[in-house]
Amino acid sequence: MVEIGEQAPDFTLHADGDREISLSDYKGKNIVLYFYPKDMTPGCTTEACDFRDQSRLFEELNTAVLGVSPDSAERHDKFVAKHGLSFPLLADEDLEAAKRYGVWQLKKNFGKEYMGIVRSTFIINKDFNVVKEWRNVRVKNHVDEVRSYIEENLL
Prior knowledge:
By secondary structure, the chain is α+β, with helices and mostly antiparallel strands.
């Protein structure tokens, strides 16, 4: 599992728009890397739309936003089109990135245990170091917290 202060584990994944994206493609920018469980679900849609609504502010902060879930790139295409998302969604179908970042974990819901993505956000600075993480994210006001952290610590 990645720790604050460590180099960000690099990966290359398929993305919406029939492209491949590597995390290292964004070296030299700040990166908001957020992991979410599933496209088209209420919490994940709210989170994606919150990032979309502030995408211009993140651009002004020299910060790329990347969303990652186990969904396919084709499903991401539908999610992006339906909600007009302005940042890449990466398809981590083999859970390569999720496991490297320690977000694929045992979860409990209504007394049942299963493996799944724990909603988490990582901030990676221009030097490619992980400088902040949020795990078990609550969606409400989360994007504001992320933006504030970048404004206060990475400019």
